[in-house]
Design goal:
Elements (H helix, E strand, L loop, with lengths): L6 E3 L2 E3 L6 E5 L6 E6 L3 H19 L3 H17 L1 H12 L3 H22 L5 E3 L6 E9 L2 E5 L7 H13 L2 E5 L5 H13 L7 E4 L3 H8 L5 E7 L2 H13 L3 E5 L4 E5 L5 H12 L10 E7 L3 H13 L21 H14 L3 E4 L14 E4 L16 E7 L2 H8 L7 E5 L3 H10 L4 E4 L18 E2 L12 E9 L1
Parallel strand pairs: 7-8, 7-10, 8-9, 10-11, 12-13, 12-17, 13-16, 15-16, 17-18
Antiparallel strand pairs: 1-2, 3-4, 5-6, 6-20, 11-19, 14-15
Helix pairs in contact: 2-4, 2-5, 2-6, 3-4, 3-6, 4-5, 9-10
Length: about 475
């Protein structure tokens, strides 16, 4: 049921020139379920040459025609959603319902950017002299190198690919080696919709080798990366050394503040669902829970009750609400965070252990009373770990929310208009969701500040990074 994944270069699905492959492992069974072609420098050269040819054709395609083709790709994604979701669950582990939701959202993202393609307006600036015309025009920036992670194999790729294609750019997509199949299906939808050969190319391989080769290459004019802050800083520095535009969507450590006047039932249910979605492997997952003293016990009763209802199992099994973590290395990483937190005095309120010895399953875990000196309070845990501490005053909560250099997402629950207004001003985060979980819709900006990166991957702002502004002045 899982097909080996090939490279997509110049409109063709091909093996790596060396014949090398990478194993794809099902995290629920630890079985090798397929392979992905392993690109080397010769394959990257072929992808660059193909992208140069594809860009020549695609940039000359009208915005109207680009939009029509993209909408066709979105339709194909929806038609194939069940099959694509099953591939994603097999290679990444998330429950089938989450995989299906991610796939359907990808189609919405494509549709959104298809419409944005037709609205890349320039402007006319009134001139100071008669007979002079001053024009501002928008042009595609060029060939884009996009680097995407394994936790959302389609969602992270589709934002970059759709914005770039809408602007008229060509793309070399470095997909996730651990979850290549569903990402390949995204590319297949565009290819089957009639995208010109070379306008979208897909490679897999050693991430460092690919990025170190593509980013300095003279043909590449823009990069977009989603991943850890450490890697992002390195790639941003490399891009800067070669004067390449860059969009960086990096790590997070989102605070979730529950005030005394909050709707505790809603807060507990929404936060539990979003903390343990995709086994906590979500850059915007609520992580540092800050609960006001007077409602701490009541919130914890509700929150732990919601956590107890989570059913861990294979993402393909009926009723599963949390699958395994996506790869073997996450298990010792999570165990290390927990052990270190306990050494610092933290308590385990729920979970704390691996489940069984087959598959990368881990209990939904809640830690309480965690000193800020513990590693997990300072490093992104990227797993099913909820960290719950108390706070006394509004200023205490803000101080902890802003303590770290991360600034991707933040959450808060309060019925006070004054508190809600103040939160929007005081929290240092690219995205703030209050009294609900409202992030990552196609039409809304998605991005961070501080060490969580820069640039946007949603909303009207996202396409700007793929457009070059040119000023043309002429006299009659």
């Amino acid at each position: 049921m899982y097909k080996d994944v090939l490279l997509h270069i110049g409109g063709e699905w091909i093996a790596a020139q060396s014949g090398r492959t990478l194993d794809v492992i099902n995290p629920a069974t630890e079985d090798v379920i397929g392979t992905a072609a392993h690109a080397a420098l010769a394959d990257l050269d072929a992808a660059i040459a193909a992208a140069e040819q594809g860009f020549t054709i695609w940039r000359a395609t009208s915005a109207y025609a680009r939009a029509a083709l993209m909408r066709k790709a979105a339709t194909l994604i929806r038609e194939r959603a069940d099959a694509i979701a099953r591939i994603m669950t097999m290679e990444e582990g998330k429950p089938l319902i989450e995989a299906k939701g991610e796939t359907m959202l990808a189609a919405d993202v494509i549709d959104w950017f298809a419409e944005e393609a037709r609205r890349t307006y320039g402007r006319v600036i009134p001139a100071r002299a008669e007979g002079v015309y001053q024009l501002v025009v928008k042009e595609p920036v060029g060939i884009v190198a996009a680097f995407t992670p394994w936790n959302f194999p389609i969602n992270q790729a589709v934002r970059k690919v759709s914005a770039a294609l809408a602007a008229g750019c060509a793309v070399i997509l470095k997909g996730p080696e651990e979850t290549p199949g569903s990402c390949a299906e995204l590319v297949r939808a565009f290819a089957d919709a009639g995208l010109p050969a070379g306008a979208l190319n897909l490679v897999f391989g050693v991430p460092a080798e690919i990025s170190e080769y593509l980013i300095p290459h003279r043909a590449i004019r823009k990069i977009s990366f989603t991943g850890s802050t450490a890697v992002g800083k390195h790639l941003a520095a490399l891009a800067g050394a070669h004067m390449k535009r860059a969009t960086m969507e990096l790590g997070g450590h989102a605070p979730a503040i529950v005030f005394a006047d909050a709707d505790l039932d809603a807060a507990a249910l929404i936060l539990a669902a979003n903390k343990f979605r995709n086994a906590g492997q979500v850059c915007v997952a609520p992580t540092r829970f800050l609960v006001q003293d007077s409602v701490y016990d009541r919130f914890m009763e509700r929150f732990l009750g919601a956590v107890a209802q989570i059913k861990v199992g294979s993402g393909l099994a009926e009723g599963t609400t949390m699958g395994p973590v996506a790869n073997e290395r996450r298990i010792p990483a999570i165990e290390g965070f927990i052990a270190d937190a306990q050494k610092h005095g933290a308590k385990i309120a729920a979970g704390g252990k691996r489940i069984g010895n087959k598959g990368y399953f881990f209990e939904p875990t809640v830690l309480t009373d965690i000193p800020i000196t513990a590693r997990v309070m300072n490093e992104e845990p990227f797993g099913p770990l909820a960290l719950v501490n108390r706070f006394a005053t509004f200023d205490d909560a803000i101080a902890e929310a802003n303590r770290l250099d991360y600034g991707l997402a933040a959450y808060a629950y309060s019925r006070s208009a004054k508190t809600v207004t103040a939160l929007g001003h005081r929290i240092e985060s690219g995205m703030i969701s209050i009294n609900h979980h409202g992030l990552a819709l196609p039409e809304t900006p998605f991005g961070g500040m501080k060490d969580s990166g820069y640039g946007w991957e949603g909303g009207a702002e996202a396409i700007d990074a793929y457009l070059a502004t040119k000023f043309v002045t002429q006299a009659s």
